[in-house]
Amino acid sequence: MNSRPIQKLPMDVIGKIAAGEVVERPAAVVKELVENAIDADATAVTVELTDGGITSIHVSDNGTGIPAGQMKMAFERHATSKLLTAEELFSVHTLGFRGEALASIAAVSRVVCTSKTADAEYGMKAQVEAGRFVDFREAASPVGTTILVKDLFYNAPVRLKFLKKPASEAALVSDYLMRLILSRPDIAFRFASQGKTVYRSTGDGKLETAIYAVYGKEAAQAMRRVSGNFGGVLLNGFVGVQDLSRGNRQQQSFFINGRYFRDDQISRALEGGTEGYVMIGRYPICAMNLTMPYEQVDVNVHPNKL
Ligand code: ADP
Ligand code: MG
To answer: What angle (nearest 5°) sits at the alpha carbon of residue 247, between those of residues 245 and 251?
Structure first.
């Protein structure tokens, strides 16, 4: 039946296939870029979207920057500064370490990356289109990294067709940033969509201030602090009941060791604990941190690592 010979796929096809697994939509691009910024010890991260990220995604940070001599390498597939040995694979606490994000994003968009390290005299600016470097030169830059992703999936029309409307894609990014602000009160985030600021957190390290940034002053004042310690699991956070309750669980944010997760059982526990303070059919809101030994957490329990 199949008379064609077995052939290796061309590199650009391999690149696009791999890219599809890492970046399926703007929110995934934002997540990868923001995680890189956090891994680079940024204390301030800005995310700006145009048309839900389909036209452009702009992420800038004040982290360590990419050394000029490593900028090209950063865009190579399976290139990372975060993992050296196979053993380290099991002990990494950084957020991303597959070394695929920048290569994957650049394979399906037009990327401009500008970066400068503290000890460099100049910054470097690289332009990559569909995985190919089209420009690379010295450029003025503050210390840190700025990545502009334009025309996502312009060379992958099938993927482009799978995207939702810009407003829906922007909402997914907004959700992700809302949870990031709550889980990292120590980082100042700014998120803007279509030129309008959606969230701005101060990075003062206090969960109360992060809640203020997400839910506003009144809600932040009305939410109640909850804390506890059971069998080596530390719990602390804020819960909103009565007028703050919602029609679904969308505003319940749980984090294990700083990582967002979803779980019916813990939502039910929260709802059980707030019975009488929330009307039937309504759900309390919360931002709740659980802290426990890393070894006791298996991120693979949930199919999407959620
Ligand atoms: P990974 O994060 O898995 O290492 P990426 O493709 O996301 O792979 O990034 C490749 C490398 O580029 C990183 O290991 C890091 O050294 C560098 N890098 C990427 N983004 C930044 C950033 N915002 N600040 C500093 N270095 C970065
Ligand atoms: Mg990464």
So the answer is: 60
Angstrom distance (rounded) from CA 290 to CA 203: 20
Which residue's alpha carbon is nearest to atom 17 within ligand 1?
74
Q: Which residue out of 30, 34, 39 has the highest number of ligand 1 atoms within 8 Å of its CB and is therefore the one to mutate? A: 39
> What pLDDT digit, counting tens, does each position of 103-148 carry?
999 999 999 999 999 999 999 999 999 999 999 999 999 999 999 9
Q: Which ligand is nearest to the CA of 80?
A: 1
Burial class (CB within 10 angstroms; exposed 0-12, middle 13-18, buried 19+) of 32: buried
- Cα 20–Cα 26–Cα 28 angle in degrees, nearest 5: 60
- State residue 150's pLDDT score: 98
Q: Which of 41, 91, 93 is nearest to 64 (CA)?
A: 41
Q: Which two tokens stand for residue 94?
A: 């950084």
Identity of residue 239: V
